[in-house]
Amino acid sequence: MIDDADDRIVLGWEEWIALPALGVAAIKAKIDTGAKTSALHAEGIEPYRVGRLDHVRFKIRPVPRRPYIYVDCAAPVFDNRSITSSNGIPEERYIILTELTVSGRTWPIEVSLSDRRDMNYRMLLGRQALQSGRALIDPGVSFLQPKLSFKLYTGYARGRAERKI
Asked: C-alpha angle 153/122/115, rounded to 5°?
């Protein structure tokens, strides 16, 4: 039973989230308690070094039906892991640390970078992002938290020439 003073967020099986440290103002995420690590669709993943630290730069296309909208991102590499995808095949992925914002609350999460262009959701929230008593999941409903809008991307790159990935 949950106490009335409980301040955990209740999430449906899909929610609007933001990744402010990456410049992602709105993205639909599927909640997947079967996945340990969260996954984010990233294209053109390119490793580089800053001093002695490994980093990656990549492109996020947060609006599935508008591929001309993208966000250029860069982050330090937190880890490299072999992660088994939904098709059962393990793949090496870069893991970054970033911030997740849901309903005005922000906390750090680990995110693996992966090609999810054929998936319905560009973002998958795994158990690690939801544990520590931050959230409860109601799998029978969607979008319990405030709606964000893809209109937040007004003014982002449109039809800009891109380098080959």
From this structure: 120
Print the domain residue range for 131.
Answer: 9-149
Give the DSSP per-residue string, the chain.
---TT--PEEE-SEEEEEEGGGTEEEEEEEE-TT-SSEEEE-EEEEEEEETTEEEEEEEE--STT-TT--EEEEEE--EEEEEE-TTS-EEEEEEEEEEEEETTEEEEEEEEEE--TTSS-SEEE-HHHHTTTTEEE-TT-S--SPPP-GGGGTTS--S------
Q: Each residue of 3-31: pLDDT tens digit? A: 444 678 899 999 999 999 999 999 999 99
The pTM of this model reads 0.86
Asked whether residue 157 is assigned to any structural domain, the reply reads no
Is residue 165 a part of any domain in this protein?
Answer: no
- CATH code at position 78: 2.40.70.10
> Is 1 a domain residue?
no
User: Considering its fold, how many domains does the chain have in total?
Assistant: 1
